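The instructor's notes for this session suggest beginning with a concrete chain rather than abstract definitions. Hand out the sequence below and ask the class to guess, before any prediction is shown, which regions might be ordered.
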Amino acid sequence: MDLAQHFVTAVSAVDSNVKGPELLPVALSRACVAVLPVEGASLSMTDELRVPLGASDEAAARAERLQVTLGEGPCLAVTAAAEPQTFDLAAILSRWPMFATEVLAQTPFRSVSSIPLSVPDLPRFGALDLFCTDPAGLAVELVHEVATGIGEVISAALFAAPTANYQHGVTLPTWLNVASVTQRMNVWVAVGMLMENSGLDNSDALALLRAYAFGRQATLDDIARQVTNRELALETVLS
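After discussion, reveal the predicted structure:
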């Protein structure tokens, strides 16, 4: 049985314990942990601001949130490069010192590999992130095997998933109807509010929101929620 077949078998086993089509990315992430020498996995859509789809556990979800809050990290770099890569602990410490400090303090992970996901009409639509407690990380050969085997299976599964009608008659895959997606999209609402009240452009408003979150040891998602719910005054963030 090759890696892709092993993964499909694992997805079927995990899926029986993960109820609801909206949790497909969670099942896919947990299947990665079941068949690969990793301790965590997460799936996200990639754009200027990554949108989390699902993770194997809370530690993997936290590692994703740290990168988005700080605006730096291995998975963001791989998205830009469009090539699967693995980063050992030394590389993480050297290239992303803020991320390294936080991920070492808040998670058990010591190395990260990331695989861009694509389908013919949507190159680089997402990423699979694999987290290891081993500082050496995954072998380069295995990362490329995952990209051509498991990565293709994940992409096909996501785009073959059921769709549903949401607000304003928009049809979307059911796996987008989860709290983590709503929370991340809420960041753009908060960015828009800052722009309207400050004259900042999109990039500067996002950077300000990130800096505010980091300075208070909060996540970008949490600060955005406070801003949009009027729990946190815009003037406080802008001061």
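Then share the key points. DSSP finds twelve helices and seven strands in the chain. The chain has a mean pLDDT of 88.
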